[in-house]
Amino acid sequence: MGGGLRRRRGAPSLLRGEASSSEVREKPGLGDVVDEILLAIGNPVRRRILEKISEQGLYPLQLSRELNVSQQAVMKHLEMLERVNLVRSMRQKSPLGPSRKCYATKTSLSLTIDMAESLFSVRTRRISLADTWEEAIQLRRRVERARGIGDVGRRMAVLSEIIGALEDRIEDVERRRISLAYVKNVAMKELASTVDAVDVDYTARRVLFSLLAGPERSVEEISRRSNLREAVVRSLISYLERRSILIPGTRLAELRGAGGGEIG
Which CATH architecture has domain 34-105? Predict the structure, then answer.
């Protein structure tokens, strides 16, 4: 960044600013429901309901008895969960009388929140099988083979063994992910400190940080995150490049022209 690493006197610091080192990354098509999902699962009773019906479909009366909550309260919670597509209802015949509504989980979703001193990230992803991960494919095949085991006791034992192996593997992957998140937090903090010292105004530093702190972003995305017009973002990127603060030839240069036109 050459000689431009002295922050202007009196300019606000990114380290103390509202977007110093935060990242919110939401998967397209899922991000628009994150707020609703967080609101839904923020209630402990609704979390317990989801836990129960993920094991097997249940009637409201069964949930009321298992959770020691009134049936009326259970119904209100179920209505909210159904409204945000976390649960589904279906009619099932009852041996004791007319059919009754049974509830089960609906959405296959992974929601991850990372929060640290210089990191805030929300990620949503559909739960699906990656067709390039051989280990997961092999475990899926073990489940399919277990279906063909005639002895019920043996089949349950094999499935339990597979689930245990999956839990161990998920925990191992999660430990690795958490370690990477820790290093990312350290890197984000260092980046915020470095950007904070650049001799440009606060708005330019916000754009600079947005460019450097996450995945490649279009001018349109940077505009949205920074609450700036796209023309202003393009102008600031051009200015930062002319100052040799953004080095031509890096991945940042690929943003030239993104969002509908040449920068400059």
Answer: Orthogonal Bundle (1.10)
